[in-house]
Amino acid sequence: MRETFLNIFRIRDLRNKIFFILGLLVIYRIAANIPLPGVDVLALKRLFEDNAFLGLLNVFSGGGLSNISIVLLGVAPYITASIIMQLLTTIVPTLERLYKEEGEQGRQKFNMLTRWITLPLAALQSFSMLSLLRSQNILGDITPFNMAVIIVSATAGTIFLMWLGELITEKGLGNGVSIIIFAGIVSGVPTGISRFIATWDPSQIFTYFLFALVAAITVAGVIFVNEGQRTIPVAYAKRVHGAQSYGGSATHLPLRVNQAGVIPIIFAVSLILIPTMVANFLAQSSHTKIADIALNMSAWLQNQWVYGLLYFFLVVVFTYFYTAVVFDPVKISENLQKQGGYIPGIRPGNTTAEYLYHIINRITLAGAFFLGSIAVLPFIVQGITGIQAFSIGGVSILIVVSVVLETVKHIQGQLTMRSYESF
Q1: Are residues 154 and 278 in the same domain?
Q2: Distance between CA atoms of 343 and 361, rounded to whole angstroms?
């Protein structure tokens, strides 16, 4: 382990990549602490204490929302745009071909469309968020011109973070958007520790132990699900050409329990924010009936148990959805057949595709329910203990652990590649 860590800094190219990414994250953290003018800090603090929805959105902005900074929306609009584009691939054949069949050039066009959708979404979410903050007297009286300037600034902040994320992704050490969210979560750890120390109560030692136990179980569970896999044996037919023979070897096809990684969690959180944001926006309507319906919907969504059930459901659904996007049994079956490979006891072709589809559905069910259960476990513990001041962020733990595991794998891959190049 020590030797691996030292090798990271011995290899110049890898070292430069890591320092480049760290530099981008420093720039991001600076941007997250540049506040917009005219903010009532005390009113803002009270709002975040009472509103779980805003606290969740603050995770994706890396604290930018709680500071009302120029990146107050974080990468949430980009994630929402990605969800929309992924959904469209299932109903628009042209987009499906663009994403799956046209190679790198097709994916670049697909990503460009995602960026264009991000732009209006960021402007819309900026407007609805600022309207909510004005209704809570957090922003003072501002002119329409100043409102427009703030919306443009917030939209530009999202586009800026999207660009940083793409620069990080290009370095090949993990998903840039996930790393930005990870950095935002980790940046709040010192504040959380200081708050815990300030509110320390020896009489609550058992409760603290319970929270620590839940955190440990969550971390272990995420590692177990992310690293768990089922291996499918694959054999290759032996071919003879003249005096030489080819193939005849045996290998395996690894099917991960959680094929989609951390993406379902990010998608679920982003989607769960939309109805709450819309309800908060419509609550300001001059039409009394619409405002009443929106207020009732907002109150309903703020219920901890409703939120937990909805969140669990979305994690399960998006795990299946994104697994279907990244894992194509038909294409894998075709590739095996072209290479002379087959699964022992299973006929090549459609039968193999059906077999793989059946297997991936079964293991994804276990992985999806496990992820969903871990995600809502902190809400259950918090509901039982009744403690609001010190809560374990299930979403935060899931994202942090998953991103760390993914990044470590990418770094190990880079080290392995360079060890082969040295021969």
Answers
A1: no
A2: 18
Chain-centroid distance, C-alpha 282: 27
Q: What is the spatial distance between Cα 71 and Cα 250, in angstroms, rounded to a whole number?
A: 52
Tokens for 332?
């894998």
Report the C-alpha gap between 11 and 16 in whole angstroms: 9
The token pair at 297 is 């919907």
Alpha carbon of residue 375 to chain centroid:
13
**How confident is the model over 220-274, as pLDDT tens digits?**
877 887 788 888 888 877 665 555 555 556 778 888 888 877 777 777 777 776 7
CB atoms inside a 10 Å sphere around CB 306: 12
Query: In this structure, what are the phi and psi dihedrals at residue 249, rounded to the nearest 5 degrees?
Result: -90, 165
Q: What is the pLDDT of residue 298?
A: 72
Terminal-to-terminal C-alpha distance of the chain: 22
Tell me the two tokens of residue 87.
């959904």
- For residues 136 and 218, state if they share a domain: no
Residues in the chain: 423
CATH of the domain at 313: 1.10.3370.10
414 and 331 within one domain: yes
Q: How far apart are CA 369 and CA 80, in angstroms?
A: 23
The tokens describing 155, both together, are 């939209």
Condensed to tens digits (0 to 9), the pLDDT of residues 278-336 reads 776 677 667 778 777 877 777 777 677 777 788 888 888 888 888 887 788 888 888 88
Residue of 106, 77, 90, 100 whose CA lies nearest to 177? 77
- Residues 62, 158, single domain; the answer is yes
Q: How far apart are CA 49 and CA 65, in angstroms?
A: 13
Domain check: are 74 and 216 in the same one?
A: no
Rounded CA-CA distance 279/298 in Å is: 6
Which residues constitute the domain of residue 156? 1-199
CB atoms closer than 10 angstroms to residue 299: 12
Query: Greater confidence, 13 or 6?
Result: 13
Sheet holding 341-342, edge to edge: 250-256, 229-236, 341-342
Picking from 246, 228, 222, the residue whose alpha carbon sits closest to that of residue 236 is: 246
Closest CA to 29 of 220, 180, 142, 138: 180
Amino acid type, 104: E
Last residue of a domain, one of 171, 199, 227: 199
